[in-house]
Write a structure and sequence with these properties.
With about 450 residues, the chain is α+β, with helices and mostly antiparallel strands. It folds into two domains: about 190 residues, Endonuclease, Chain A; about 160 residues, Histidine kinase-like ATPase, C-terminal domain (Heat Shock Protein 90), CATH 3.30.565. The chain is about 45% helix and about 20% strand. It is built from twelve helices and 16 strands. The strands form four sheets. It has a seven-stranded mixed β-sheet with strand order 1-9-6-5-2-3-4. The protein has a five-stranded mixed β-sheet with strand order 11-13-14-16-15, with helices on one face. Helix 3 runs parallel beside helix 4, helix 10 packs parallel to helix 11 and helix 11 runs antiparallel to helix 12. The longest helix is centred in the middle third of the chain and has 68 residues. It is elongated.
């Protein structure tokens, strides 16, 4: 097989183009993990010692499940496949000789594919899945970033399994694989296939029961949510009118007083400052509304590394922090996995929160940006030593046009839309935002965004 063919080889495509098209289903990585775990449980129950070929998503939790299974049934043989060199996986399984790290060629298609092949005299099966990238979807009223998912096919047919194994043989780097471990065995007993199906039916019934219970609560909740949405929309428009009317009223008053010949000196300067402040407030409202409206524009999701984004944002705000005598810094680990999000959206999230922290932190204070990985999410934390937020305000701070008090006697500025915009941006990226704070001690805003599966990163 020539190099060009190998570089474009896809086991998923080979199986689907073998002449017997297999219907695919769209699943999450969690569902795939559950299916593979169900197969392992069946093998243990039946006391089988098969030859297994497996390639899982690049996560330590998957490797631990395989290790746990093999410790329970040590007689079998598992070929643990990966594009990484053998020694990268060897350390985790040095005490388990029946787990054989097996290196595959590294191409963009194979990197996105996961599989489990079970070969035994009484039971054989193939589970094959391929990562699909997320995309922006939505209606006329809102757009949302879908997260990556897997397309999976499943087969018990020895003919199809052999097609897969023949393709697999072409992409194995190891040279010492026994030929008998790459041959599909025709099962003599189909009863085990029924056992596996029965296990899946039990799972489906359990899920269906859970969904039915949820549905009884969902319908009134849906109606309540719809009513709440209408109420919020009406409330938003009402508040918007007030926000636009108030600065205009103040500006008209200031202009009227400035026309008087009796207004001089400090009074005149005070009214000019009022005009400037109200113009800024009006501009903030318009800018905030434009930012909310832009959420419906067509934006392409990108693979974003925080270590490439955050330093530039922090350096932009460094002069302002120095002027206010606030210590500003960041810590972004270099090994942090990327997130999939439109870069302008992610930038705006961080900018809004950073700007908030600098506004509400007094001189000699500290504002810090940091990030870490928790489960399958990247957490971005912006914390400060500012005036803090009363816990009673936690439910209101993300509301449109809501403003908390400023440091000292400084007047309230801005439209009160900053946190609303951040919350909407995070929601559109399937993430969450939370806040923790104590009055006088500072605040921490935490954005959690799903990481991109390593298989989808070139």
């Amino acid at each position: 097989m020539n190099l060009n063919m190998i570089s474009n080889l896809s086991l998923y495509r080979i199986v689907q183009e073998n002449g017997t098209f297999l219907p695919s289903v769209e699943i999450s990585a969690i569902t795939l993990k559950h299916i593979i775990k169900t197969v392992f449980e069946l093998l243990k129950e039946q006391g089988l010692t098969p030859t297994i070929w497996v390639k899982t998503p690049q996560s330590q939790s998957w490797l631990q499940d395989i290790k746990k299974y093999q410790q329970t049934v040590p007689q079998g043989k598992i070929y643990l496949c990966s594009e990484k060199p053998n020694h990268d996986n060897q350390d985790a399984f040095t005490a388990i000789s029946s787990i054989i790290p097996t290196q595959l060629i590294n191409n963009s298609w194979l990197k996105r594919e996961c599989f489990l092949v079970v070969l035994s005299e009484t039971f054989s099966c193939l589970i094959l899945a391929q990562w699909q990238t997320g995309k922006i979807t939505g209606s006329n009223t809102s757009k949302r970033l879908e997260q990556p998912y897997l397309k999976m096919v499943f087969s018990f047919a020895p003919k199809i399994i052999q097609v897969f194994l023949s393709g697999l043989e072409n992409v194995i780097v190891n040279e010492s694989i026994p030929q008998e471990d790459l041959i599909a065995i025709t099962p003599h007993n189909r009863e085990l296939e029924g056992h596996l199906v029965a296990k899946q039916i039990q799972i489906i019934e359990s899920l269906e029961k859970t969904l039915n219970q949820a549905n009884h609560q969902f319908i009134p909740q849906e109606q309540e949510t719809f009513s709440a949405t209408l109420g919020l929309r009406s409330n938003f428009l009402h508040n918007l009118v007030q926000e636009l009317r108030s600065p205009i009223t103040h500006m008209k008053t200031a202009l009227s007083l400035l026309e008087s010949r009796q207004i001089k000196g400090e009074q005149r300067q005070r009214y000019l400052q009022m005009l400037e402040r109200e113009c800024d407030r009006q501009n903030s409202v318009v800018s905030g509304l434009l930012a909310l409206l832009q959420l419906d524009n067509s934006v392409d999701p990108e693979i974003v590394y925080l270590e490439e984004l955050v330093p530039g944002i922090v350096s932009t705000y460094q002069p302002l922090a120095n002027e206010k005598q606030i210590q500003l810094g960041y810590t972004i680990p270099s090994h942090l996995p990327p997130v999939k999000c439109p870069r302008p959206w992610l930038r705006q999230m961080i900018v809004q929160l950073l700007n908030n922290s600098l506004q509400f932190t007094p001189a000699q204070g500290r504002v810090f940006v940091q990030a870490s990985v928790k489960n399958d999410f990247v957490e971005i934390m912006i914390n400060d030593t500012g005036i803090g937020i009363d816990p009673k305000e936690f439910n209101n701070i993300f509301d449109s046009f809501y403003r908390t008090r400023r440091v000292g006697d400084e007047p309230v500025v801005g439209a009160g839309l900053g946190l609303t915009i951040v919350q909407e941006l995070v929601r559109h990226c399937n993430g969450t935002i939370s806040v923790s704070s104590k009055p006088g001690k500072g605040s921490t805003f935490t954005i959690s965004l799903p990481v991109i599966p390593p298989e989808l990163i070139d």
